[in-house]
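HUMAN: Now follow token order:
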Amino acid sequence: MKALKHFWLDKTNEIVESSKSILNTNSIYTITDSKGIIEYANDNFCKILDCNVNTIIGERHELMNSEFQSIEENENLWSTLKEGEEWRGVLTDKLKNGESISLKTTIFPIKYGNQNKFKFLSIYEDISKCMTLNQKIDKDEALYKFIYKSIKIGIIIVTDDNGSIIKWNEGAEKAFGYSEFEILGQHFSVLMIEKHKNSKISDLLGLLKRYKTVKKSEVLELKCLNKQGEEFSVELIVNKWDIEGKRYTILKMLDITKRVTFQNKLKQKTKELELFFYRSAHDLNAPFSSAQGLINLIKEEESIEKIQILIEMLEKTINHAKVFSDGLSNASLISKLSNELKIIDFPTLVDDVLKMLKRESKFENIKFNVDIENCHSFKSNPDLLLVVFKNLIQNAIKYSYVQSECHAPFIDIKVTSSDNEVVILIGDNGKGIAKKELNKIFKLYYRTEAEHCLGTNGLGLYIVKNIVESLNGKIKVESEINKGACFVIKIPRTI
């Protein structure tokens, strides 16, 4: 017997390391040949099935050919194994005392020799208790109806009094990403974030007592963890039930991730709106005050040359106010125009933007590389997209380096389309953005160190991001100091 075990551990080249680890440490396992004849069974397997190892070696493995599984289930098991693929499922049998036994089973086909031959390593977990409780719950018609009448809540999980999961609905499977096979018998805390990992049902009830009651049901908001390790927020109601002297807990959850995200966005927008009103009043007042002062000086000045200087200063002040006014105007367009859709003529739109920006300093020395492909049927709002292109191209011009023998400034403008989306790329080889500022540049009124020197108002990129999001798109930026910046926008097709 020991020799056979060592053959499996040391001689089989195809066995994977993870299987070796399971075989060495798991409490219940068997080894069979390709026909399902038992070659090895450990002591715990014999104990749980109440059999003697010497009497089952060389015998047909009843669990792998059980009369308690349908013909289709047995055929699926063997066809999967003969293909050399891992099989997972629940195997059932009757013990000598007449009780049912259910084993959560994983069977690994292990190739050996030069031919296409397999032996099968079966790893078991006894879930008989969970299956029995599950059946009892299904028999209790009142509770069963109560659980599934509450299906609109979305996620329903039933545990025993120790917190082990014995039943859950399709909504729970979708939300957490585990199959029923994977979750059955697991403690409910496997679904919780780290700080709740060691929780008991009593701990949850203790948390609930700190919160107000809603319609006589205690409600708690907490974070859960899906199979991929991603957190999401749920609203939880806990109910206790007794059946045949056994106590069960029903965890009813509603995924409120979207609601929480919306609430957080609303709070952020409220803060931005308050800042917007405050800064708008301040930033509009400054050029008006300056303009009024310059006009008063012009009235009192007699020298034509000095008047000319003051007029030039007044013109700059008015232009500064106009830039800010345009920003406010663009901001007000977003919600109004995001649903007004037309087919976008991207070549004409880009050409119009470049014509608008021709008077920008450094424009004439920059090479514009325009590449537009397959974008004939894309629908969006042309006014909003014009604002996006204008802001990003204007920024690229503003932060470009002057042409020299060592440097030829360029701006790439590329638009490509697929069945699902349009991708807009605007990149340059200019001054770039510091890494520490990349996650801040889209914030309202945020200005980089370079922008403070240029006297910009900090509205441009904030407006661009809000326009893109209003069109259900996404924007990201990559940049390196002295090597340039590249903005990539993806906007989904609406039709």
The radius of gyration is 35 Å.
